[in-house]
Design a protein that fits this description.
Elements: E1 9-11, H1 18-27, E2 31-33, H2 35-52, H3 78-89, E3 93-96, H4 99-113, H5 122-133, E4 137-138, E5 141-143, H6 152-162, E6 167-169, E7 179-180, H7 181-188, H8 199-204, H9 208-238, H10 248-252, H11 257-270, H12 291-294, H13 296-318, E8 326-327, E9 333-334, H14 342-370, H15 393-409, H16 431-465, H17 473-485, H18 495-507, H19 510-519
Parallel strand pairs: 1-2
Antiparallel strand pairs: 3-5, 4-6, 6-7, 8-9
Amino acid sequence: MTASDSAPVVLGDAPLAIADVVSVARHDARISISEVSRERVQASRKVIEDLANDSRPHYGISTGFGALAKVQIPVEKRQQLQRSLIRSHAAGAGSEVEREVVRALMLLRLNTLASGRTGVRLEVVESYAAILNAGITPVVHEYGSLGCSGDLSPLAHCALTLMGEGDVHTAADPQGAPVPAARALAEAGIKPLVLAEKEGLALINGTDGMLGMLCLALTDLAHLLTIADAAAAASVEGLTGTDAVFAADLHALRPHPGQATSAANMVRVLAGSRLVQRPREGEFTRVQDAYSLRCAPQVHGAARDTAAHAARVASIELVSAIDNPVVLPDGRVESNGNFHGAPVGYVLDFLAIAVADVASISERRTDRFLDVARNHGLPPFLAADAGLDSGLMIAQYTAAGIVSELKRLAAPASVDSIPSSAMQEDHVSMGWAAGRKLRRSIDGLARVLGIELLAATRALDFRAAEGFGDPAPATAAIHELFRTRIPAPETDTFLSPTIAAANDLIVSGSVTAALTKALGAPLD
């Protein structure tokens, strides 16, 4: 999808949806500001300008920030106050953050600026939108946010761009070396801004980085949980297990919605299979499969329900206006704690736990394929010539190593807090860190599922050679897709590119498309 394929995202007329965030972040959808939003922005700016001329101190307007809030700043130094705030807070370190994360972060901050609750001038909103529409992406670093007073440092790097300072990537060469922001703005015809009272705070006081990562993660996880259901079904089939345990009436006895969805997906994928064992009069059928097969809907379903809870949190955050202080509809300007990242940080951590467990059960299914004591007649390690060849032995090592890493990443970031700002900010959320590790976790889950599908499709090769019966149309479609990129080996080959190809087939959407075509409609 390209920017021309994506519908424009209008800020101010309706709440942002997760899909809007993804559209702007990944597909460069253009942004516009509604007329209603423009009117709200101008009205709230009038409130701030009136307070700026007041002899009494007002936080963020005529005072310093954080622990320095007791220092009143004279009028002639207030522009310097805003510059100093942004420059000092743009203190990131480490590797650059991904372009899609920066774009998501900027869209979400712009959404709050356009709400009319922050008190910035209309030109700030328009310039921020112009930077996004021009494909200019500020350099934002891995470290710097504690997730309280929002994602201060990442947002400050973006605000620095608005001032014509710092480094950025351009749409012409988004993966190239950074260039000075002043040059990129000039080439795009965007004039750098001199920030006025309150605007520095408004540009950096938000949970936009962690929320942006949550929106992207929920999108990716929805896709991967569907793949997980299909992979589990393919493993049941390849191991000649039974699909009887996925019957809807059994799952109605424990009516978790995610569990029912996963079980129904597995039933659909296995429909028409001649490899699964189904009860027949007068024939012995395997009574029970291992937990990694039999309990897949319970585990995948719990992950789905956790994602549904996280999506509810995201939907609330997407209609929120987060700043400190805020301009209320009645004209009051009030300090608050809405910038604290706990609501987002918690669900980012919940998702990391769920991702680790889905990957863990997938790796256990892969391992069963390789063990002759448990794989029901398949060759050791799915090797073409066991002994001479090692087959997928070390692919399982790779999956196990990733799962071990995911278990470490499942340790919550949000239970940590390191006080800052001379103990003014004495409890922080670490939500940014929770978002960063969840991105790594989701990448790992895709790779583990790819290795499981490598094993399941290889098993189908052996089942076909043994004349066991035809696979289900859906799993046959996955097998056919894999063989377009990954030929069935007659002897061991360089395995790393094979694992990479399996991962690409998943993350590119090719597996999902093959399933949809075979089934006639997408899985849930």
